[in-house]
Design a protein that fits this description.
This protein is α/β, with parallel strands linked by helices and about 180 residues long. It has a single domain, classed as Putative cyclase (Glucose Oxidase, domain 1). The strands form 3 sheets. A 6-stranded mixed beta sheet has the order 8-7-5-3-9-10, with no helix packed on it. The protein has a two-stranded antiparallel sheet with strand order 1-2.
C-alpha cells in the first residue's frame, strides 16, 4: 500500500498489518555498495555481477540489505543526498529471485530524491521518480529504510528478524530489525 493501491499487476495492495509474517525472518544477504557514488542507480547487471563475484545464489525469502554508506551522514542535511539507490529494473530482478523484503541504510530504497528531481528537471521523464518503490505495483515486496550498522554485517551467514509494527490499514510501519550472527 506504501507504493500504490495495487500490486502484482492489479491486485489490491496489502496494508502493513496484512504483510505475511513468514517474510520477516530469514537468511540475510548484505550488498556492500558503499563504493558506488552518491546518486548511482543500481542496475540488474550490477546485482548479477555482485552475486557472481561472491558466489551466492539468492534463495526465495532471503532478506537483502543494501549498505550504501549513507548512515555516516544520518542526522545531517547531506543524508538525503547520500548513497546509491535501486532502480525499477534491479528491484524487479531481486523480486524475481524470490526476495520479498529489502532494506537500505539510505534515506530511501531509490536514488536520493533531490538527485532524482534534478534528473526529472532535465529529462521530464516521470518514470525516474520513485522507480524502485513503484516496482511494488508490479511485484509485491516490502522495504526498510534508514537502517544502521549494515557496515558491520558480513555478506552472508546471518539471519534477519524484522517484524513491522502492525498498524491497522497502514501504508507502512516502523520496525526494529536485528541481525543474528
Amino acid at each position: 500500500w506504501h507504493y500504490a493501491p495495487t500490486m502484482n499487476g492489479g491486485e489490491r495492495a496489502r496494508t502493513i498489518d496484512e504483510m505475511p509474517m513468514e517474510w520477516c525472518m530469514g537468511n540475510g544477504v548484505c550488498i556492500h555498495f558503499q563504493d558506488k557514488p552518491d546518486g548511482y542507480k543500481v542496475t540488474a547487471a550490477d546485482l548479477e555481477q555482485y552475486f557472481r563475484r561472491i558466489d551466492y545464489q539468492l534463495r526465495p525469502l532471503d532478506i537483502v540489505l543494501l549498505h550504501t554508506g549513507a548512515q555516516k551522514n544520518y542526522g545531517r542535511t547531506e543524508y538525503g543526498i547520500t548513497g546509491c539507490g535501486v532502480g525499477r529494473e534491479a528491484t524487479l530482478w531481486l523480486l524475481r529471485q524470490g526476495v520479498k523484503v529489502v532494506g537500505t541504510d539510505a534515506w530511501s530504497w531509490d536514488v536520493p530524491l533531490p538527485l532524482v528531481a534534478k534528473e526529472f528537471a532535465k529529462t521530464k521523464d516521470p518514470s525516474v521518480i520513485w522507480e524502485g518503490h513503484l516496482a511494488g505495483m508490479e511485484m509485491e515486496y516490502y522495504q526498510m529504510e534508514k537502517m544502521t550498522n549494515l557496515d558491520l554485517l558480513p555478506v552472508t551467514g546471518f539471519q534477519v528478524i524484522c517484524f513491522p509494527i502492525k498498524i491497522r490499514g497502514g501504508s507502512a510501519g516502523w520496525v526494529r530489525p536485528i541481525a543474528v550472527l
